[in-house]
Request: fold
Amino acid sequence: MKWRLAETGIICVVVMFIVASQNVQAQITKNEAQKSPWGPTDEIGTLNMMTEASKLDVLKQVASGKVYDLGVDLFVGMPNCCGSFGDPPFQIWMTHTPARDTAKELLSYSGDAVSLYTHSGTHLDTLNHFGLHGKIWNQVSAKDALGVRGWTKSGVDQYPPIVARGVLIDVAKSKNVAHLPASYAITVTDLQEALKKQGTTLRPGDVVLTRTGLMTLWPDQAKYRLDDQAGLSLEAAQWLVEGQKAMLLGADNFGVESFPSKNPDNLAPVHAYLFAERGVSILEVLWLEDLAKDQVYEFLFIASPLKIRGGTASPIRPLAIPIQRK
Reply:
């Protein structure tokens, strides 16, 4: 009898080991850059969900002439996500100035130049921004597509103008707070509850913008910073992308996801998942306060990144125009 009990115990341990090994293997297999369902030449991932028909459909739904500006100002001293990583802050300087005594000259010529990290202010992150094990979306290898001046694949120059239905999920309002607590990881339940309170339904191909309320701290560098920001949990991002078929994700924080990561081996799990595994680009540092104030939850979303060849990001100035709520 003792032998049978021992034998049963050994079998259970072996079975558990096999199952655990399979789970680990599945996790390893999943944490890799994936092939695109849009073919071997795809460089824009889920933005392929946009069609002429989908764009025309949302344009027909415009219900107001009011335009909401979702971009922030770019200025010297603005909050910078990645200065601790060695990335440069925004700078602007005059290259030409008119004479002080302008009465003596016919033309008063002014010109300026800027230097900035492409992830400055409100911006779009592209699919070559993050990868896994040396490969980006569509299993493109850094060895094959990364040069001294940047990537030759999935750069922001390949991105089309974005015209789609946008949805605001106001998690901060749903929880009745000015902004979510430091490092708070938004759950699937949080998103579902906010959508229910708003009376909003997500649809495939949506641009989904999540409000944490952190823009109420902008532009205080001591309070609006990357190292302790609230944002999406991995599970919430998976629900939006896999469950709701969102085309593009954005938020009013620095990285869309919650920081710091609770995974010591992956400092940006949502980034890695979205870019490398699902082909989903993201929008960061969005000004969502005006939309939230007016309770505009459904809108025509328009944004067009600069054509920076090979760029991992581009500053943008997105626009939102209210549409009819169905």
Summary: Residues 2-30 form the longest helix (29 residues). The mean pLDDT is 91. The helical segments are 2-30, 52-60, 142-145, 171-174, 188-198, 234-243, 269-278, 289-293. Residues 41 and 138 are 8 Å apart (CA to CA).
